[in-house]
Design a protein that fits this description.
This protein is an alpha+beta fold. Helix content is 18%, strand content 32%. Strands 6-7-8-9-10-11-12-13-14-15 form a 10-stranded antiparallel sheet, with no helix packed on it. It has an 8-stranded mixed sheet with strand order 45-46-48-47-49-50-53-54, sandwiched between helices. Strands 1, 2, 3, 4 and 5 form a 5-stranded antiparallel sheet that branches. Strand 18 and strand 19 (276-280) form a beta hairpin. The two termini are 27 Å apart.
Length: 963
């Protein structure tokens, strides 16, 4: 990027010759509101690769969807309202469809009136750009591999009944793209095309359940066939991959049961009226578990050979007829007595003193916490809906009408393997309580033969922490797993096990994982598509290992010697099952020393990944057109926002930039880039730190610096930071644009010393950064959020090198925090401390010195650094009391501290007004501390509770004026 340079002489004469007109302005927070950028996850490519679409627009306001031809500059744009969304393309790439939401102004108006807003659907012909729009659309779908049709499902009218049993069906239009003719199907509740697009399955849910059923429309003839009609509700249509069969659920009222009773339906051998149908409910059958029924929460599906239906079952509750009759009799008797009294009464009598009805007495509202609970009551409460919706995977074999319950109360976690020959079951019931206490995960692993139902225990007390679970090959017979530093395979058919990595002279223990986990594994990339090879990483290289472990080839050569590594594989083939080594495969590559990234190609049938390119950019999102030799990928660096490039050759050569992201960036002062420095921690570890340079950086000049910390951050050296209002307040691009340098050091941890490890790594990193001349040692601040907030609050108890600190949602007392609850999940922090980020073990009663040594509150008297605290009152990760305890301790010692709390917010700030407010306040604070700007009043004087509303109104007015 071109930048204007200003001489020292001119800097001494700020009012002469219009110098400031030559200097690009720094980014302001009001500019962030208007910042125009491409929205993440909105990119899509047409099947032939000739069209690319994406959504772009300001941080606040209305967006546009762009469709551009990849072979030339033909481009179209369409306003789509305030909600980001992408486009979908028809199989022949001649049409694109996308939703148009309400505008920003309409959304704000609707919030005031409490009225709903509705989406529209726009269909565009390519390249002619002819458009047709449909109103009040809730869903749409092109007709699979057949490019002729699009189905458009409309939202219900506002006047439609909304009670539980009201009909859910609405209009479905089948729109013929070429002729523009529409065919309306009324009262449709669900629809789904098969993969070929030749058949449309749909269900009807009409008023009074009149005509309800499941239907199949032949898209070639237009003939719809009623496969079943009933006074029932149908849902969860699920086509198989081939598109020649589907399964769904049906629910009926049943006088024996409190809730609807479900039936699973399997449709196959599609042939109009002669289509095959099988139904199974299981209720009242001898082979079916008592007090159980088909679950309405799962999605049923056919086995690959269409011999078996798989579905879930769950408890059903019988109506208590005797209790109901008794209650009815009492009600009738009371009603009769009242009627008789009314008939005979002549004048008012003394008010009758009624005896209290036991049913009217309030029940105690309480929770019983028992030490033997495998899951805390809080965890059970948080996971209550998951538990209620849980279903036990089961099967029904059509030929012999055999039901089998595969999962049960012990083997709840069951995974059906490919080909549906076997299932893998995981049982942690013997270890769940202890696992929730110390975080160390153990399981018993079983195989289940789905033909015979036989269960075989493969492993008892299998150590699952840091090693994951089993990876099953596409053939459903081979599986791989990790034990104690080595990977193994097993043949599920005969139970034979093989050591896959034992003969390889390399380590398969993750060298960078410093949590309290025994020998955490490197990555398992699964199996080849033919199930002959396992693809397993060591710390650098990718190995192709035969299923029996007898042969092993490094597909990446010897990246370890270059201090490089394979990052992972790009999944560019639709519906792939495993890595097809007969096709070109692409892998991300990374240089651990330089932080450069790149892409590598493993040609079809070859055994060596070829480096395509590696440089100071970040590459991701590689995609291939399903029906064309067109490749697209994203490229970014710390100066350039993510842009999409397209190439038409497998080597990705001569790639052409298609998008134009962040068009306003060139108007503002921007970071001058980033530098990577090496340093030695106090523990003797060789580490790295990233220094992001301020805008208009001049060599030899030192700058105010924010030290931002978490764990290892330098791997993101070349990543772009989009200007935004973050949930934690800090935005790298905003600070570098405003003249700050930003230092991000790596932190390596020693067990039982998380805080001291941060000190050992961060302080030397700051000193090394000061030695570069970039960082002004008298104007260095530190900031972190969550775990970074903890380390920030601890560091200022151990060092005075920072002039200011800001800690977001920090842990401050490791002793009290250890047994508090992580409310977002309902579990305790004990497991997090002992096997995850806390890195302290065992409990504080046996490790008091380490817990106290690493707790900020126990060193609070040594704090001399002013501190800005953020802690929200509904923080479900780090309990609010942690912030309160540190704030009150500092306040009691008359240390300069301000704590900000956003009411109702969780661990990170979610609401935009709050995110904007905190981002502004944090920068005001750092500007005062490091740039000698005036102190904000909320810092220097505070705000009286009675004056808070006026304070907020004043700030809102100032922001409005600025905009």
């Amino acid at each position: 990027m071109k930048r204007n340079k200003i001489s020292i002489l001119l800097l001494l004469l700020p009012f002469s010759f219009g110098v400031y007109a030559q200097q690009k302005p720094a980014l302001s927070w009001k500019d962030v509101s208007k910042w125009n950028s491409i929205r993440s996850f909105t990119n899509s490519m047409s099947p032939n690769g000739q069209w690319l679409s994406w959504t772009s627009g300001p941080t606040e306001g209305d967006l546009k969807l762009f469709i551009r031809k990849t072979s030339d500059t033909t481009s179209f744009s369409y306003p789509i309202g305030a909600t980001a969304g992408g486009a979908t393309f028809s199989k022949d790439s001649k049409y694109a469809a996308f939703k148009v939401s309400a505008t920003d102004a309409e959304v704000k108006a609707a919030k005031k009136t409490m009225k709903p807003t509705y989406d529209k659907l726009t269909i565009v012909s390519l390249p002619g750009n002819e458009k047709v729009t449909f109103d009040r659309v809730k869903a749409s779908s092109f007709s699979g591999d057949s490019p002729e049709w699009i189905a458009i499902h409309f939202a219900a009218l506002e006047t439609a009944p909304k009670d539980k049993d009201a009909a859910k069906g609405t209009d479905l239009v089948i729109y013929h793209l070429a002729s523009k003719k529409s065919y309306n199907l009324g009262s449709v509740s669900e629809f789904a095309f098969n993969k070929a697009g030749t058949q449309l399955a749909y269900t009807i849910d009409a008023n009074g359940q009149n005509g309800n059923g499941v239907f199949l429309r032949d898209m070639a003839t237009g003939i719809s066939t009623a496969l079943e009609n009933d006074k029932a509700v149908y849902k969860s249509i699920n086509w198989n991959e081939k598109g020649d069969a589907f399964a769904l659920l049906k629910s009926n009222k049943n006088e024996k049961y409190k809730e609807d009773v479900f039936t699973v339906i399997g449709i196959s051998k599609i042939a109009g009226d002669k289509t095959s149908k099988v139904s199974y409910s299981g209720i009242d059958k001898a082979s079916f578990p008592k007090k159980m029924g088909i679950s309405g929460n799962g999605t049923p599906y056919w086995s690959e050979d269409q011999t078996t239906l798989f579905f879930g079952i769950s408890p059903v509750e019988l109506k208590d007829d005797k209790k109901a009759d008794s209650a009815k009799s009492k009600t009738d008797a009371v009603a009769k007595a009242k009627t008789d009294t009314a008939k005979t009464a002549v004048k008012p009598a003394i008010a009758e003193v009624k005896k209290p009805n036991p049913a009217d007495i309030e029940k105690p509202d309480m929770i019983i916490w028992n030490w033997q609970d495998k899951r805390l009551q809080s965890a059970q409460q948080t996971q209550e809906m998951r538990d209620k919706n849980y279903s036990f995977i089961s099967s029904y074999r059509v030929a012999d009408q055999k039901f089998s319950q595969i999962a049960d109360s012990t083997l709840r976690n069951v995974i059906i393997a490919p080909k549906q020959l076997y299932a893998i079951a995981y049982d942690n019931s013997n270890y769940e309580l202890m696992g929730n206490l110390d975080g160390q995960s153990y399981i018993d692993i079983y195989t289940i033969d789905l033909k015979t139902g036989a269960k075989t225990r493969l492993f008892e007390k299998f150590y699952a922490s840091g090693s994951g679970t089993m990876s099953v090959a596409p053939n459903g017979t081979w599986a791989s797993y990790y034990v104690d530093g080595a990977f193994y395979s097993i043949n599920l058919a005969n139970g034979q096990k093989y050591n896959l990595t034992g003969s390889i002279k390399s380590s398969f223990v993750d060298a960078l994982d410093d949590h309290n986990v025994s020998k955490p594994s490197t990555s398992n990339l699964g199996w080849s598509a033919d199930s002959k090879y396992a693809l397993i990483m060591d710390n650098n290289d990718l190995w192709r290992i035969s299923a029996d472990g007898k042969s092993a080839v490094s597909l990446s050569g010897d990246l370890k010697s270059k201090k490089q590594a394979v990052l992972g594989r790009s999944r560019i083939y639709q519906d792939e099952k495993g890595t097809d080594l007969s096709k070109d495969q692409y892998f991300g590559l990374f240089d651990n020393e330089t932080k450069q990234t790149g892409l590598g190609l493993l040609p079809a049938g070859k055994s060596k990944i070829n480096l395509l390119f590696m440089d100071n950019n970040v590459y991701n999102g590689l995609a291939k057109a399903t029906d064309g030799n067109v490749f697209a990928y994203s490229k970014q660096n710390n100066l350039q926002s993510p842009e999409v490039y397209v190439s038409t050759v497998p080597t990705l050569a001569a790639a052409k930039q298609i998008t134009k992201n962040t068009p306003d960036q060139e108007k503002y002062a921007w970071t001058s880039g980033a530098k990577l420095i090496k340093y030695l921690s106090a523990n003797g570890d060789s580490l790295q730190a990233a220094i992001y340079l301020p805008a208009n950086y001049e060599a030899g000049k030192s700058y105010p610096t924010i030290t931002y910390i978490y764990e290892r951050l330098t791997d993101n050296l070349n990543a772009y930071t989009m200007p935004a209002f973050p949930g934690g307040g800090f935005n790298l691009s905003m600070y570098t644009s405003n003249g700050y340098a930003v230092l991000m050091p790596d932190i390596k941890y020693k067990l039982n010393d998380p805080g001291m490890s941060a000190v050992a790594c961060v302080v030397p990193a700051v000193k090394a950064a000061v030695a570069t001349g970039i960082v002004d040692e008298k104007r260095v601040a530190i900031h972190g959020h969550s775990w970074g907030g903890y380390q920030t609050s601890f560091l200022i108890t151990q060092t005075n090198i920072f002039k200011a600190a800001a800690a977001g949602a920090p842990l401050t007392n490791m002793i009290s925090m250890y047994s508090l609850i992580y409310w977002n999940s309902g579990g305790t922090n004990q497991a997090i401390f002992e096997a995850s980020q806390g890195r302290l073990t065992p409990g504080y009663w046996d490790n008091w010195d380490a817990f106290a040594r690493n707790s900020p509150v126990y060193h609070i008297k040594k704090v001399q650094t002013p501190l800005l605290l953020l802690h929200n009152d509904k923080d479900g990760a780090v309990d609010y009391t942690q912030g309160i305890e540190y704030y009150n301790g500092l306040r009691r010692l008359n240390k300069p501290v301000v704590m900000i709390t956003y009411r109702g917010e969780n661990h990170g700030i979610a609401k935009l007004p709050n995110r904007k407010d905190y981002a502004v306040r944090m920068m005001e604070y750092f500007d005062y501390m490091l740039k000698d700007k005036p102190a904000p009043e909320w810092w220097s004087k505070g705000v009286n509770r009675l004056d808070m509303e006026k304070h907020l109104e004043t700030r809102a007015f100032e922001e409005e004026e600025a905009n």
